[in-house]
Amino acid sequence: MRLLDLFCGAGGAATGYRRVGFDVTGVDVAAQPRYPFGFHRADALDVLADPTFLAGFDVIHASPPCQDYSVTASLHTSGHPRLIEPTRARLLSAGVPYVMENVVGAPLFNPVRLCGSSFGLGVRRHRLFELSWPLLFVPPCAHYLQPEPIDVTGTGGPAGRLPGQGGGIHRKPRNLTHARAVMGIDWMNRRELSQAIPPAYTEFIGTQLLDHLTTTSAAEAAA
Ligand SMILES: C[S@@+](CC[C@H](N)C(=O)[O-])C[C@H]1O[C@@H](n2cnc3c(N)ncnc32)[C@H](O)[C@@H]1O
Ligand SMILES: [Zn+2]
Prior knowledge:
By secondary structure, the chain is of the alpha/beta class. It is built from 7 helices and 9 strands; from the N terminus they run βαββααβαβββββααα. A 7-stranded mixed beta sheet has the order 3-2-1-4-5-7-6, with helices on both faces. Helix 1 links the parallel strand 1 and strand 2 (23-28). Helix 1 (12-19) packs across helix 7. The longest helix is centred in the C-terminal third of the chain and has 24 residues, at 199-222. The model has no long low-confidence stretch (mean pLDDT 90). The structure holds S-adenosylmethionine and zinc ion.
């Protein structure tokens, strides 16, 4: 199955899908020298409007930049355009199953929320996923396993303790090795880690996505 990974960054989401067997191709407007799979440098909205480019992909994942939607948006002066709505419109036109990921507070339709504590990670990193098909099961948070979750936002500063967005005390990673370990990612720098989602999230979604795609194509073949 071929998966198109839009707004791909350095490939956190991509790696989870790859782990369950997807053939992944990434698109990002910025160069991504550490993206581990096939990569095209392009504007994701242009790609979504190009039927020739989209031909042959079975599913599309999109992670539009999230600064303008996050609960800390007022702290940012990033000026990122709001990309969720135009991305959704083009995903629906593309006519294949899709996953759109973003931060808590983003205007996603009927999203599921995943948490690092559900996957034994050191980060909590709540993220929302809008899916074009229903997930059968969503693991609940297990915060009791993370009395002091690690916060990998930022590009590295003193390894202190600080209040977390969802309450409780978060700690900063001790160093790059620690930041990578708590995310389950061993190839990114601190800036890339701060934008990535843990591959465990898309490994989980990808497993159910494969089931969905297999069932759908079997039903189409039988029709
Ligand atoms: C939140 S990061 C994606 C992180 C990635 N999903 C991961 O798990 O590693 C968003 C990415 O969108 C890219 N981006 C921003 N605007 C874009 C556009 N119009 N087209 C393609 N990529 C864009 C940024 O360069 C950035 O790498
Ligand atoms: Zn949680």
